[in-house]
Amino acid sequence: MLSSLWRPRVVYYAECCDESMIYFAPHDQVVIEGHVALQKAILHLCTGYNSVADIVASLSGVYNNAEVLQLLEALRQQC
């Protein structure tokens, strides 16, 4: 489970490919299918200054909070 105080930041380049995002790690590539617009919105907010709570609050008017948290958790685990 994510801590609402965690402040994620982007450390890998990501590229949109059809209906997925590809994250380029030094020795691997991670593909996360679907929710491309949400992934882009989250990446834009992952500056290291915004907490998980800040990110969820920023996106709550457009996206479901549970989806945001689920995608943040997937990014944390896979990237």
> pLDDT below 50 for ≥5 consecutive residues: which ranges?
none
* Helix content bin: 40-55%
Overall pLDDT level = 94
Strand content: 15-25%
Q: Strand-and-helix sequence, N→C?
A: EEEHHH
Number of H- or I-type helical stretches? 3
C-alpha termini separation: 16 Å
Main sheet attributes: strand count, strand direction, barrel closure: 3 strands, antiparallel
Question: Could you say which structural class the secondary elements and strand pairing correspond to?
Answer: alpha+beta
The radius of gyration over CA amounts to: 12 Å
The shape, in one word, is globular
Strand order in the sheet with the most strands = 1-2-3
Number of DSSP E strands:
3
What does this protein look like?
The protein is an alpha+beta fold and 79 residues long. 41% of the residues lie in helices and 22% in strands. It has helices at 36-45, 52-59, 65-78; strands spanning 13-17, 20-25, 28-33. A three-stranded antiparallel sheet has the order 1-2-3, with helices on one face. A hairpin with a 2-residue loop joins strand 2 (20-25) and strand 3 (28-33). Helix 2 (52-59) crosses helix 3 (65-78). The radius of gyration is 12 Å and the shape is globular.
